[in-house]
Structures are given as structure tokens and as C-alpha cells.
Amino acid sequence: MGVRLMVVDDHRLLAEALASALKLRGHRVLAAAAPSAGGGRPGGGGAPPPGGCWGPPPPPPPAGGTPRG
Hints:
- By secondary structure, the protein is α+β, with helices and mostly antiparallel strands.
- Helices cover 19% and strands 16% of the residues.
């Protein structure tokens, strides 16, 4: 059984080619796409950074206290 994947790259043709290669290797590709202009990012442009997160990680909870939220 293969891995379920979604392939996103700034170049749609590259994303589709990679998706095809992954399918040939037995993986299940759910989607292959390129981000739209502006990318949904406040500063504009591009795919999300590695890991898929925008912005800084949440702060750690204070020592000996309850978590901030």
C-alpha cells in the first residue's frame, strides 16, 4: 500500500510530472497543483515553507504555570 500525497510546486508541470512518477511507484496522489498568484500569504507569492506552516511557532508555556492561549 502506498502513501497518500498532495504534490504542490511553483511549477505546475513539475508537480504533475512528479505526481505521475509517484503514481507509477504505487503511491496515491490526491492532487497535483501550483499555488495561485499571491499564494494566500500576507506578503504574497509562493508555496508554503517546508513543513507547510506560515508564521512562528506558538510560544512555550510559562514555567510552572498554565499554558498561554
